[in-house]
From TrEMBL:
GO molecular function, one term: ditrans,polycis-polyprenyl diphosphate synthase [(2E,6E)-farnesyl diphosphate specific] activity
Annotated InterPro entries: UPP_synth-like, UPP_synth-like_sf
Key word Transferase present: yes
Highest taxon, organism lineage: Bacteria
A single BP term in Gene Ontology: polyprenol biosynthetic process
Annotated signal sequence range: none
Region (Disordered) location: 146-167, 344-366
Pfam family of the protein (one): Prenyltransf
Metal-binding listed as a keyword: no
Name of this chain's protein: Undecaprenyl diphosphate synthase family protein
Keyword set, alphabetical order: Transferase
Length: 366
């Protein structure tokens, strides 16, 4: 991805495996659910995009399945030594006591491999509960005498840096810049609450076994666009909301890409195409508001036209005739049942102007 704005630390919550299996009538087990492809894809993508820190977290609902979902494929399929030769340093986050003894020992050995020229710090979260870890860190700081208002305690005051070091050591995890969660759920589920305070959140509907390098790359593109939009909003020359500013779209589209705008020196820049996974399209806020208002008005007109046509059909009037006003079923004595679903129409009198889609109807929308 050609971008100067990359996240330093990406967390991927590997959700959606149970749904993937249930949709196919399979059991959620290592025999039925392929665990290697998605894991290989996300590590390859992080290396390709030069993301320095990557943390992989099984969803809390599948903590007991973390061994075969994450640890076994990492150690067996990808191989700790092969990853080490590619510049991947492995570390562990959480409680590994629930893993099989042999698996836990191999995971410790993988973390003990010399760092060498580290291209990617890969953190494997096993039975991780961010809130419990945060509480344990605060309790440990209080136990050492920190927090004494007199300032005479040996530990000193409780600071943000002190809490951060207590959580994961002096060389612990940096703050998270981007969280990607697959599976369609929109929550963090206690994943690194301290580190994710200012993180960008991207939730994907793709199920974890179907995750590819393209999903990861598109998420990084969206992250880059969000950062650029944030910079534009805080720029001292940023335009205020009002009349839509269409200058960024005075594009020279000779490159054949319909989603690219021309770049000049007057604050206009290249808008990367995001047509692909997820169908991402980015427009300036003012343009979006303007187009959205027109869309809502047209939807109202179309709805009124559809109601008028349906009323004609129910009353037995030919649809090809023209009339300024079409009586709704509520104008007649007693309710009329919809032949399609048996639902009674409202009996309140109502008259609707017969207007075609996109034409003014002369009355407010529904």
């Amino acid at each position: 991805m050609a971008s100067s704005t990359l996240p330093g630390h990406v967390v991927v919550i590997m959700d959606g495996g149970t749904h993937w299996a249930s949709y196919r009538g399979l059991d959620f087990s290592p025999v039925s659910v392929p665990a290697d492809p998605a894991l290989r894809a996300v590590i390859d993508a992080a290396l390709q995009q030069r993301v320095p820190f990557l943390t992989l977290v099984p969803p809390p609902e599948a903590v007991r399945d973390a061994a075969w979902m994450l640890v076994d494929p990492l150690l067996n399929g990808l191989g700790a030594r092969r990853l080490h030769h590619r510049g991947v340093r492995i570390r562990t986050l959480g409680d590994t006591s629930g893993l099989p003894e042999e698996t836990a020992a191999r995971l410790v050995q993988a973390g003990a491999l010399p760092a060498g020229d580290t291209a990617l710090h890969l953190t494997v979260a096993v039975d991780h509960d961010g809130r419990s870890e945060l509480l344990d860190a605060v309790r440990a700081l209080l136990a050492t005498g920190r927090g004494d208002r007199s300032g005479d305690s040996e530990g000193g005051p409780v600071t943000s840096d002190a809490v951060h070091r207590r959580l994961h050591g002096d060389d612990g995890l940096p703050e998270v810049d981007l969280v990607i969660r697959t599976g369609g759920r929109h929550r963090l589920s206690h994943v690194l609450p301290w580190h994710c305070a200012d993180a960008e959140l991207i939730f994907l509907d793709v199920l974890w076994p179907d995750f590819t390098t393209e999903h990861f790359r598109r998420a990084l593109e969206l992250y880059d666009l969000r950062q650029r939009c944030e910079e534009d909003l805080h720029h001292e020359d940023a335009p205020h909301l009002g009349v839509p500013d269409l200058t960024p779209f005075e594009a020279d589209l000779h490159d054949g890409d319909p989603m690219r705008a021309a770049v000049t020196g007057d604050r206009r820049r290249l808008v990367p195409s995001l047509v692909g996974v997820g169908g991402l399209v980015t427009l300036p806020v003012t343009v979006t508001v303007h187009l959205g208002g027109n869309l809502v008005d047209n939807l109202h007109d179309t709805a009124r036209f559809a109601k008028a046509r349906l009323a004609r059909a129910l009353l037995g009037e030919p649809l090809g005739t023209t009339a300024e006003h079409v009586p709704m079923p509520g104008d007649l004595a007693g309710p009329i049942l919809d032949a399609g679903c048996g639902h009674p129409w409202a009996t309140a009198p109502e008259t609707v102007t017969d207007a075609g889609p996109g034409e003014p109807s002369g009355r407010p929308g529904p």
